Amino acid sequence: MKTAKQPVLPKWFYQLASPKWCYQITGTLLPFFATLAIALLVTGFVWALLFAPQDYQQGNSFRIIYIHVPSAILAQSIYITMALSGAIGIIWKIKVADMVAYTCAPIGASMAFLALITGAIWGKPTWGSWWVWDARLTSMLILLFLYFGIMALYSAMEKPETAARSTAILSLVGLVNIPIIKYSVDWWNTLHQPATFTLTEKPAMPIEMWLPLLVMVVGFYCFFATAMIVRLRNEILTREKRTAWVKKLVTEIDR
Amino acid sequence: MTPKRKQRLILVLFVVFGAAIAVALTVYALSQNINLFFSPQQIANGEAPVGTRIRAGGMVVDGSVKRDPNSLKIEFAITDYLQTVIVNYEGILPDLFREGQGIVAQGEMDQNGVFQAVEVLAKHDEKYMPPEVQDALDKTGYDQEGNKQ
């Protein structure tokens, strides 16, 4: 017996799958995220650098946490976003999902780089070493190399469809690294301390220290949304340049 | 979901779980080597090799730090509250080195069971607090978790 096909996912999911729709929706969302990102990052920076109290052992050098932790969280969140949209692209053959995965890679790579650099700068005075091959640091470095590998694989392929398919598979394989990064400090003896800031437990720092950190984390997420949307809209226009609506849009701007 | 999509979903799940199982087994096999350091307990049990470069980690024992007034030589003991290892070191210590602090020392065990360190790293914990809070806690004699010291 044949029944009418029921859509498994909500309507907006299928609407986002249309490049034209996606371009319009992201266009209205962009100013919202951009404003929020600037407001939160400026507030967070000033609060973190000028008003948050010093640490009893590290003094002022602990303030690097306000960049290090958000960028490390983002590097992992962006990787998950990239792998999931790659999977959606493979399963449903949605072009927009492929483009999202493509736009995520460089942003995630810069976040991973920022986390590693700030960690090294903090590690020298605090631990006494720029770099230690412990499980947390090494798995984070692997994450950076995964991003590099994915970007290299993209640029090595000519057809966007095959490039999207192979990079999606690579990013899905690399997904196993994410829980390793997260739990490395609990599973093994590492020099890196366990998480100060978790969703499930009370933070191991007082509220006047973690509140600016929370502002920074949310600000970083908004920054990612802004940067991703800008790159995605650009990518949609480039790949859909032969369609009527893009031609119309471009000629309208010209006039 | 169409059969084709279902097939591709299975492919995706297969890739993710296949990679996860492969890495889990590798990591499990290497689990000893991934640890950054040996604890004093492991060293006392003879799990740590003698005469090769290893790392030892533990808390610096209160009152064990002896500095040589004429050089940078320092001797201290580290403990995991089960066993204690004496460490000798010559050089500059990180800012966070102090009694009661967790450290990781790189070096080797000599015949006398003394750890000859060539590098000492301070291990920071996940707890942060303002200096005033620490002062207040010191006065009352409680630590951060509210235990009497």
Structure description:
- The complex is a heterodimer of chains A (255) and B (149).
- Chain A is mainly α and 255 residues long.
- In chain A, helix 4 (95-126) packs across helix 6.
- Chain A is built from 9 helices and no strands.
- In chain A, 75% of the residues lie in helices and 0% in strands.
- Chain A has one domain (16-254).
- The longest helix of chain B is centred in the N-terminal third of the chain and has 27 residues, at 3-29.
- In chain B, a hairpin with a 4-residue loop joins strand 3 and strand 4 (84-90).
- Chain B has helices at residues 3-29, 31-34, 40-44, 131-140; strands at residues 54-60, 66-67, 73-79, 84-90, 102-109, 115-123.
- Chain B has 149 residues and is of the alpha+beta class.
- Chain B has 2 domains: 3-32; 37-123, OB fold (Dihydrolipoamide Acetyltransferase, E2P), CATH 2.40.50.140.
- Chain B starts with a helix and ends in a 9-residue tail after the last helix.
- Chain B has a 5-stranded mixed β-barrel with strand order 1-3-4-6-5.
- The model of chain B has no long low-confidence stretch (mean pLDDT 81).
- The interface between A and B is large, with 44 and 44 residues.
